[in-house]
Amino acid sequence: MPNIAIIGGGITGLTAGYHLKKEGVGVTLFDAQDRPGGVIRTTRREGFLAEHGPNSILLTSPLILDLVRELGLEGRVAAPGSAAKNRFIARRGTPLRLPASAGTFLTTPLFSLPAKLRLLREPFIGRSPADAEETLADFVRRRIGKEFLEYAINPFVAGVYAGDPERLSVRHSFPKLHALEQKYGSLIRGQILGSRDRKKRAAAGEQAKNEAGMISFDEGLQVLTDTLASRLGDSVRSGRGVASMRRTAAGWEVVPDGGGALTGFDAVLYAGSAHALSGMSVGNGRPANLSSLSEIHYPPVTSLVLGFRKELVGHALDGFGVLIPEVEPFAILGALFSSSLFPGRAPEGFVTITCFLGGTRRPESAAGETGEIVETALRDLRKLLGVRGEPAFVHRAFYQKAIPQYNVGYGRYLEEMAGAERDLPGLFLAGNYRDGISLGNSIVSGHDVAARILTYLQTA
After folding, report:
1. What distances in angstroms separate CA 423 from CA 55, 240, 278, 283, 366, one per listed residue?
2. Are strands 281-283 and 242-248 parallel, antiparallel or unpaired?
3. Tell me: the pLDDT tens digits for 19-59?
4. How far apart are CA 68 and CA 307, in angstroms?
5. Residue of 209, 215, 335, 357 with fewest CB within 10 Å of its CB?
6. CA angle 412, 418, 419 (to 5 degrees)
């Protein structure tokens, strides 16, 4: 029976390990943390539920629900409340609802009349050269104008990447947006002419990202990672990081932190972070040079979950949450209305709000004492949402290196990863540093790399 070493026990490594083991492949999963799951972790305390990392899974691929069904978790899926379709953006210190239709767009105070009229030019603006490297900010300014960059794209990027559109590559961070322009020559034309393609994908069971639903589980996202880990059983070696991996004549050798080489692996999957991979010894007689991956920027982020008595919050919290444009005078990047998204996130008579601080925009605001972080968030929530008094529940998770930024020039790193795989047969790289940063991307990445490994084992 072939045997695979997997380094990294986050959602990508767990998903890949599950699919490989299901196909009769031996798996040994090494994870430096004391428990598998990576940043997916859920705390239940005093009737409140707090997610340490991601809060939901966007169903961008049918593979995600296929995995949920295979694991027997359909009965534990939590669907979002009806209010989740409402999204808010702060403007002039007030949360304004993002328009969801052409009619509401025409009347929304979120965008000025000149900005709305500027959209009429968009179909007549030429596409950029296919091989051009362009920042997301330049792309948006060129196609739809400065105001949409400031009050739509900038806050969205802060909420997804905790990043800066002036640095992110449109080609790598939002490849579907780049592809839409390349295929149709216009975003608006693409939305209209692409409707037939979207209907075909829907008929085939695939959802477009802007049409996809989202889910969690009754006791949070850790339900998924715990279930995957349980299927792997004693194949998981928690608390065991890896210092090096080397291809030898007898197969792949893995050396855990502290020594004691383990040999005889037919292949190795690295599913950790890019910055950890950059400091790892990887190779054979000629080590692969992956040190440049240390240049990939991971900004710090704090996730802060606050619980309040419902009557102490002036806003109805009737939506997904509120995102903050950089031009607005607030410290937080945004706030999720967590108890409005999924049931069971707060006790009766209470609500939960999850704030995010730091990112590329304000990295210094992610660090510091928890009390200081709470006060910073409260100042913003009092202005934005009419919060009064003190929180009845506080939970903070801090990540010094949170989310890889697919900035301009990111293609060089992707080429180096592909080159390492070519030069070292049996080495596989997957995860959010390569295949997209969302939780859904990482699940699909785990599925796809397992398929690649199975093909390799059949042909090696």
Report:
1. 38, 27, 17, 9, 39
2. parallel
3. 999 999 999 999 999 999 999 999 999 999 999 999 999 99
4. 29
5. 209
6. 85
